[in-house]
Amino acid sequence: MEYNFREIEEKWQKYWADNQTFKAENKSDKPKFYVLDMFPYPSGAGLHVGHPLGYIASDIYARYKRHKGFNVLHPQGYDSFGLPAEQYAIQTGQHPAVTTEANIKTYRKQLDKIGFSFDWSREVRTSDPNYYKWTQWIFIQLFESYYCKDADQARDISELINVFEAEGNGRINAVCDDEVEIFTAEDWKSYSEEEQQNILLKYRLTFLSETEVNWCPQLGTVLANDEIVNGVSERGGHLVVRKKMMQWSMRITAYAQRLLDGLDKIDWPQPLKDSQTYWIGRSEGAMVSFNIDGFENKIDVFTTRPDTIYGVSFMTLAPEHELVSKITTAAQKEAVETYVKATAKRSELERMADVKTISGVFTGAYALHPFTGKKIPIWIGDYVLAGYGTGAVMAVPCGDERDYAFAKHFGLEIPNIFEGVDISEEACSTKEGVKIANSDFLNGLTYKKAMKTIIHEIEKRGFGFGKINYRLRDAVFSRQRYWGEPFPVYYKNGLPQMIDKQYLPIVLPEVEKYLPTEDGKPPLGNATIWSWDTSKNKVVSNDLVDNITVFPLELNTMPGWAGSSQYFNRYMDSQNDEEMFSKEAINYWQDVDLYIGGSEHATGHLLYSRFWQKFMFDKGFVPTDEYAKKLINQGMITGTSAFVYRVEGENKFVSKGLKEDYKVQQIHSDVSFVNTSDELDVEAFKNWREEYKDAEFILEDGKYIVGREVEKMSKSKYNVVNPDNICEEYGADSLRLFEMFLGPLEQSKPWKTSGISGVYSFLKKLWKLYVVNGEFSVSDATPTKDEFKTLHKTIKKVEEDIANFSFNTSVSTFMIAVNELTALKCNKREILEPLAIIIEPYAPHIAEELWSKLGYSTSVSTADFPIFDSKYLVESSKVYPVSFNGKMRFTIELSLDLSKDEIEAAVIAHEKTQEQLQGRIPKKVIVVPGKIVNIVG
RNA sequence: GCCUCGAUGGCGGAAUUGGUAGACGCGCUGGAUUCAAAAUCCAGUUCUGGCAACGGAGUGUGGGUUCGAUUCCCACUCGAGGUACCA
Known about the structure:
CATH class of the domain at 283-470: Alpha Beta
Low-confidence stretches: none
EC number: 6.1.1.4
Oligomer: single chain
Distance between the termini: 62 Å
Binding site for ATP: 715
Protein name: Leucine--tRNA ligase
Largest sheet: 7 strands, mixed
Helix content: 25-40%
InterPro entries: aa-tRNA-synth_I_CS, aa-tRNA-synth_Ia, Leu-tRNA-ligase, Leu_tRNA-synth_edit, M/V/L/I-tRNA-synth_anticd-bd, Methionyl/Leucyl_tRNA_Synth, Rossmann-like_a/b/a_fold, tRNAsynth_Ia_anticodon-bd
Organism: Lutibacter oceani
């Protein structure tokens, strides 16, 4: 009767699958509880030990909630569109659908081996047409909506059209593009269909606009910031430039305030809320227009300090600003153009991070100060970002550190507008308690009053208005990729048209090559059957395009976050073909009670999904406008990454010790090519990727030594450890316990497989409690006081731990309990039965096996959780630590019935106290009954 | 740069409201069992002085509050994550 985990785990995994033990019903008398994991991207590398960390935690929670009488929804699926599959397709020619399917199979096998209590009947895959049908459907809903500021919600675009027809847009208070012009009902009716559609696009919640991207001409593709290292592409080391492209965007900015306000309603980690708050970046200030000397154009700036407007001594435009080329004088043309080109090579991140180098160029043009009429020079500088605000700042060097540094560097004027403040060394950016001076009607006013006065004045004089600005930008929703959701969109005279929802899904077309086309179109430009026939309502060959009934389809695809923005709702009724989910399902499950996932999604998925949820709420599809009540961020598991050093511009790699002699880029190598002495298996590395096949290696002492760094464990960093071998060698229960035992769920922690033997021997010890002389056997005798005490303190601690998501300490508690019960030689049913139940959420296989051996024919997962009874933990005495000046010197056991004075008397009388005092008289004796005694003196 | 998190023995970590620092586990040392090994069991294991009894120091660094600080406050150092197309 040995603990045979292989046999046990296989048996119970099969039992759960055969009996659909964890299938959740959409109806129940029990209260509902929805436990959600962030679903994985099924990479070719398979699951690594970092993935299951959160899944194990949520599984423990889900299993515990079942014991506590809840109807638990605990689904799982795959975020199966994404770049790596496409990259692989480009390299090997294999269809991403094929590799994705294979990867999913691997993932499923790996997940099954860990014994999760998922309801697999609800599985979703974002790349499945039956799933992305609903992603496309939401896109259409967004297209057919605008944001009404009066109602503060999304409304049907037809309402807007009705108003346009009746009275034009003069009184419309809606979120829209900046440059919408005012028109009357008559104007509207006189517009052509095309003009009308163009206007509507400026209001729709998803719309086409020109946006900046990282363009890599050599690769013919747009790159993620992540794919760019030191300004060149990670793959191949090619040049990357900023380029404007016509793309779909989502008007998430319409929801900025509600996304901010909603954070107060949800129990999410404060750091995560902080990063969303910062991301949304609300600031109050004013829009001010500056005329340009000798031009019709104006420069609009947003400023949070309009009260300092008299301190403006120059203006800075983002180098990408549209007016730059227009206003630059002939004398400055060359310098400006060189600077603009240089800026295009720098990423936004670099530009933001680099505050030390001050750079900029004078355009030669001057703006006119709106109040004084003074000529102020217009500069360009890369510290101004095109995408933020208006891409222009009014520089007030005396009140802003960056403007101050810029002015000092270029010798520009720094007028002081603060009363009695010395600005000879640094700018004064404090708002409170500083009075404004040299500012005409603002003189003597403090910040708050000055703000009110100036905004009023700006509005009165008509060159601006008070405004709340958000850092949040509209989200770019187009990707020039193959492996993503196709848009349900075709183009008629260049205008986007939605395909009616009854014809969804629009299925991703087949292509010969997954690369962009030769003329720079996205990969879908390679598809030959990718046009929309409006009479037959189906996708047809491109040869049939006549722009009368057959039109070209959209060539971009949707981004990675599209599919994950509503999947949590789809799980509620994932097999529904008629609707995204039925009313009954959504009304029963409502929202997610516990969501576990990584904090790296803070401003991506977790913000976009809140936005879509609010939109769905506005449209009446869902009952709540926040979809997850509580969220826990599991910390990452870190791995030790390996790096190789590529000589810039060459396919040559130098060993770590020699890298100082070359100009190199640091590139990840897969850790599996590296041995324990950091030596690279050069052949394995060469075979890894086509581009490395002919690479040269410069060795030291005949070896290639890699660099090592601790980073998060991630497929993109090639430093993953696979859980399969662990399951094979120690079993899933050991893996589950070990992952939890590593440390606090929410903190990051390094992975080291060697520690697993501890939890493994714990399971063997647990098993032995139920075995006498090699046979399974428990006694029906009444447990002793000590045995009950062990059981009940374990129940108490484990329940507290689960409530606090402190799963690591539960594992210790189990170990202590088993150690104690082993020492007590406890074999009593009355103790061992509840013990099996409380361990079940953590180690379900062994618990099931013990439970069935105890004589039960139903799954232990359905058993009620044992009830804690405090009577077993009542103590009559306490071992008091006695401290002298805060240092513990000895302990003394005293009855808990003693009063403070009695305790003090007993301690003072103790011989060791006299020893410690050596004749001194204590100044003070602190007695905290039940806790400590501290003697001062 | 900015935002966020973290730092405790050789290692992962524990200490629930400010009250015995190092629970539990890994590793290591010694022992039992064994022909031997694995497995298992027993004892020890923060550093330091000492044969020992018993001392001294100690939770990244420097200050502060307190009878008492890993815990609270201030100023730093180092590491990690995010920073808008990795998912």
